[in-house]
Amino acid sequence: MAVPKVCGIETEFGIQHLGGDGNPVASSSLLVNAYVGGLARAGWDFEDEQPGNDARGFAREGALPPEVETHLVNAVLTNGARYYVDHAHPEYSTPECPDALELVRYDRAGEEILRRSMRAAAQVLPPGQRIVVYKNNSDGKGNSYGCHENYLMDRAVPFSRIARQVMAHFVTRQVFCGAGKVGTETPQAGADVPYQLSQRAEFFEEEVGLETTLKRPIVNTRDEPHADPQRYRRLHVIVGDANLCEVATFLKVGTTAFVLAMIEDEALGSPELVPANPVQAIRQVAADPSLRATIDLTDGRRISALGVQWELLERAVKYAEDQGLGAVGGEAVGRDVLRRWEEVLHGLETDPAEVAGQVDWCAKLQLIEAYRDRHGLDWDDQRLAALDLQYHDLRPERSLFQRLPTEHLVSEEAVLEAVGSPPRGTRAYFRGQCLARWASAITSANWDSLVFDLGTDPLRRVPMMDPLRGTAEHVGALLDACATPAQLVARLSGRG
After folding, report:
1. Is the N end or the C end of the chain the one with fewer CB atoms within 10 Å?
2. Alpha-carbon distances, residue 461 vs 51, 369, 447, 451, 452 (angstroms)
3. What is the pTM of this model?
4. Which three-class secondary structure state does DSSP give residue 102?
C-alpha cells in the first residue's frame, strides 16, 4: 500500500519596498526579522541540506542545484513552519501536514504571517517607506519565483516511473489550480497570448531535471528526503502556482496525492497518459482559457487537458474503491477531493464562470474582463497588468481577491490558531511544541531533528526521521510529563 501522503507547501512571495533602496534581499531580511524578532523560535540547522542530490543518481552536465544561503535570516516557528529569506524573496514553508485540508489551513496561516510581517516592518521603517508582499509567481519582467509542494513517497518506487506517470497530471492540473496571468513574459510562450491559465507554465523548459531557477523542469529530481532515506523519498514539485482560492489549493494537493498514491500502488491502469512533448503541452494548455486545445500523447491519441483530468478522476474513483483512502488523508478528506474534483471539472467543461469561487484563473479572468469591457481596453493595456498584480496583494485593504465571493474550507479561527500551533498529525507537532515550551534550550532545528543545549557538553540532537511519528497521539503525554528539556531528552534516550 502507498504510504500516507504527508505534504507541505513552500511559497516564495513577491516583494516591493516602496520608498526604499530597491534591494530585495535587504527588504526580505527586514520583513522576516521584523516578525520573528520577538517570537519563540529557533535558527535553521543546515546539517542535512544537500540540494545537489539527484533522484536519478546523476545530474545533467552543467546542472546548477540551488545554493544554500546560510547567512540570511532563517527561523523555525512554533507552528512547525520555516520562515526565511530565499535568494531575494521571503519564503514560508508550511509544517508537514497529514492531508490536503490541513495544508490549506497552514498555507492560509502563512498568508497571515506575511500580513503580520508587513505590519511589524512598518513599525521600524522610516516615514514614507513600506514593504508590500504579493502571493504570486512572477514580477512581469521575466523573473519567476516558486510555490513548491512536497509529498512523502515510498523509496522503493522507481523514480523513472514516477516521472513518467505523473507528467500528464502536472501538465494539465493547471485547469483548476492555475493562478491566471495577463500576457506573457517569455518568447517560448507564443507571440499573442492575452491571458494564461498559469503564472508559471511558460517558464518550464525541461521535462525532468535538478534545477529550480534555470532550465526549470516539469518534474524536479532533487533528492532530499528529510526523513529516513532507506524508507522514504520526498517528491519536490516545482510546477505549481501560488493559489489564493482555498479550493484550488485543496485540489492541487489532493489530486496530486491521489495520482502519486496510484503510481505507488501501480493502479493507474491503461492506457498510459503520457504527453509526447510535455514542455510544449504545458504551454499549450496554459495559453488556452477556452480549454479546447488538445495535446499529443505517446500512444498517438490527442486529448484535451480536461480529458486527461477526467480520465485521472475515473481512475482515482476506482482506486478509492479498490484500495481505500488511507494514503490520501482518510475517508472524509479523500471523498471530498473526489467530489470537488468532479464538480470543478464539470463546471470548467460547462462554463468556467461557474467555478470562479473555487479557481483562481477563472476568478481573475472574470474580474479583468469586466474591467476591460467597462473601459474598452485592449489586452496589452498596462492597467490590466496592474489589476493582475493587485489580485495577489496580501494587504486586505488593497487585495482584489479579498473582495471576491470565493469559497472557504477553513475558518478564520482555525487559521489564526495555525499561526502559532502545529498540526497534530505529523512530527511537526513535536517540533512546534518543543519550541513553544523550551525555545531557549534549542540551538537549531530542521525538518528531521532538533538540537538541544542542556547546559552540558555535548549538544544533544534528537532525530525525527519518520514524518508520521512525533504526533500529538504519539508524544503528547510524554511532553506533558516533562517539566524541562533535560527530562525530555533523558526520557527519549531511555534514561528517564
Report:
1. N
2. 22, 56, 12, 4, 6
3. 0.96
4. helix
Known catalytic residues are: 86
Average model confidence (pLDDT) for the chain? 94
268-302 pLDDT per residue, tens: 999 999 999 999 999 999 999 999 999 999 999 99
Query: At 492, which helix (H) or strand (E)?
Result: helix 485-492
* Helices (H), ranges, 138-277: 159-172, 174-177, 246-264
Per-residue pLDDT at 186: 87
State residue 400 phi and psi, 5-degree precision.
-75, -35
d(CA 233, CA 212): 18
For residue 275, what pLDDT is reported? Answer: 98
How is residue 332 written as a grid cell? Answer: 472524509
What gap in Å lies between CA 442 and CA 451, rounded to an integer? 6
* Residue-wise pLDDT tens digits, 191-226: 689 999 999 999 999 999 988 887 899 999 999 999
Which amino acid is present at 43?
G
- Classify 104 in phi/psi space as left (phi over 0), alpha (psi -120 to 50) or beta: alpha
| DSSP secondary structure letters along 120-132 | HHHHHSPTT-EEE
**Could you tell me what percent of the chain has a pLDDT over 90?**
87
Instruction: Walk me through the domains of the chain, giving residue ranges and CATH numbers.
Output: 7-413 (3.30.590), 427-492 (no CATH)
Read off the C-alpha cell for 331.
475517508
Q: Which of 380, 324, 383, 417 is nearest to 112 (CA)?
A: 417
